[in-house]
Amino acid sequence: MSRLLDDVRRAARARGYSDRTGRAYAGWVRRFVIHHGKRHPSQLGEADVNAFLTALANDRGASPSTQNQAAAALAFLYREVLHAPLGQTRIVRARRPRHRPDVLSREEVRAVLGRLRPPYRLVGALLYGSGLRLLEALQLRIKDIALDRGELVVRAGKGNRDRVTMVPDALRPALAAQIGRVRGLHEADLARGAGWVAMPGALAGKLPGAARELAWQYLFPATRTHLHAATGQHRRHHLHESAMQRAMTRAVRDAGLTRRATCHALRHSFATHLLQDGYDIRTVQELLGHASVKTTMIYTHVLNRGGLGVRSPLDRI
């Protein structure tokens, strides 16, 4: 099985998917094989895929997003690795509940950000100020920030799409200072024979020297370097998302909020507050990187204007 899983990860890398996606796909292939008595997928077919995906919903209570990821992984396996694309999958779909996104008030955002310590405060400010997902913020590289134009570029975001969003004016000094700190850290790494960073896709081969350039270093580097076994390079990764998540949990508690608020609540609040300020939904959709405006429409249901955003006629008399 290990060879099959390696093939899945290599195929995902060749298609430009992130290592995280490759590992997730390999994990689902492993579960699929075990579910069917460790038979090789070449001996299984569409009916077996349907049975596995249906079991996820019926027997294991998988969420719709979990089931969709499993379906995508198995479709990828048969299309890209086994070269035997699946037909139409006829499965029992897990029901997708309609959840209202967790949105903080402006005062709550201010209280939470004020209780985050550096560098987590700047990460949180970007989640709220630029509408980034957590991993999008942590994977920012120095070259992705254009302070003179007030823009930042999110590379290979959800759906493997790039997008441009704004740099809040209030964050320009903090971002300039952070870039300065990364410069000093990187120079120290270079002086001791380190200074490498992981490169996306096939760029490591196309631009062999770029991995030690400041432009490609992460805006939020990890506190320690690690030895990359395959190359022998001492690399510095970005901050781990779990560190930011823990910092957010502490900040929410210290701010005295009586409800749960995750890092993603800052992105939800960004979208909701823009709509409250009168920006049109298509602009918000573009800034968030949503493929469909239907996804963005959920924020119209949480605006603080009563049911469906309608003003009661009683308020007019």
* Rounded mean pLDDT score: 87
Total number of helices: 13
List unreliable stretches of 5+ residues: none
Shape: globular
Short description:
This protein has 317 residues and is mainly alpha-helical. The chain is 47% helix and 5% strand. Among the domains are: 2-81, DNA polymerase, domain 1 (Orthogonal Bundle); 140-237, no CATH class.
Feature tags:
DNA polymerase, domain 1, 13 helices, 5 strands, globular, three-stranded antiparallel β-sheet, 317 residues, two-stranded antiparallel sheet, mainly alpha
Structure description:
The protein is built from 13 helices and 5 strands. By secondary structure, it is mainly alpha-helical. The strands form 2 sheets. Strands 1-2-3 form a 3-stranded antiparallel beta sheet. Among the domains are: 80 residues, DNA polymerase, domain 1; 98 residues, no CATH class.
How do the helices and strands line up, and which of them pair or pack?
Layout: H1 2-14, H2 19-35, H3 46-58, H4 64-81, H5 106-114, H6 120-130, H7 134-138, E1 145-146, E2 151-154, E3 163-166, H8 172-191, H9 203-206, E4 226-228, E5 233-235, H10 241-254, H11 263-276, H12 281-288, H13 293-296
Antiparallel strand pairs: 1-2, 2-3, 4-5
Helix pairs in contact: 1-2, 1-4, 2-4, 3-4, 5-10, 6-11
